[in-house]
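Hi D.,

Good news: the full-assembly prediction came through. Inputs first.
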Amino acid sequence: MTLPEDAPLTSFVIAVDGPAASGKGTIATGLGKAFDLPVLDTGLLYRCVGVMMQKAGANLDNHEEAAACALLLTADQLDDPALRTRAAGEAASRVAVHPRVRDALMEFQRTFARQEGGAVLDGRDIGTVIAPDAQAKLFVTASPEVRAERRWKQLKAQGERVSLKDVRADIARRDARDGGRDAAPMRPAPDAVLLDTSEMTIDHAADAARRIVEAARAKWISST
Ligand code: CDP
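Then the structure:
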């Protein structure tokens, strides 16, 4: 985490993007283990800004206050279990529309990506904006129905009481907001490999992701 923002990517960077509950977090963690690389769940940064705003009683649509919160963020805030709640996910996607919030969080993410040896980052704009030079890029998807069921089970396991119908609505709203915003909208990078996990178990999806990244790594090694 010591190289300047404009340092070239000299190590192996894996970008894992995709919509809510597509499986990208589990896949990113598996890739980190398989390739012995540190992993950053960039959604936590936006979740943290959203939660900071809510705690301060601020309006999530106020871009100036949101950007001020983003500038205060430090790595030690990212372990808070409160960031994993349904409300934090919704707040995250609302503050993530503000370009100044995204700019404020960019350096943290790029510094993580440029650490020696490389890194895995998962989010919405890793392959397109944060690390467009990443050597391996995945865009992980699954049908909205499958994602809603996964997220519902996950929230229930965390002790949240919510209906599947409401989680379906959350997912649809977040897909529309994340894909429709002007600033770094969620979309696959032109050179990303699409991985649809709708019909896969999480182990199967992690295996498929590992094979895709192994192929990208072999190509990168042979070109250097
Ligand atoms: O876990 P889940 O996929 O539901 O969400 P997350 O990855 O924790 O991201 C929460 C929200 O943060 C997303 O809905 C996006 O609006 C935003 N986000 C973003 O805009 N860019 C990223 N690189 C990561 C997250």
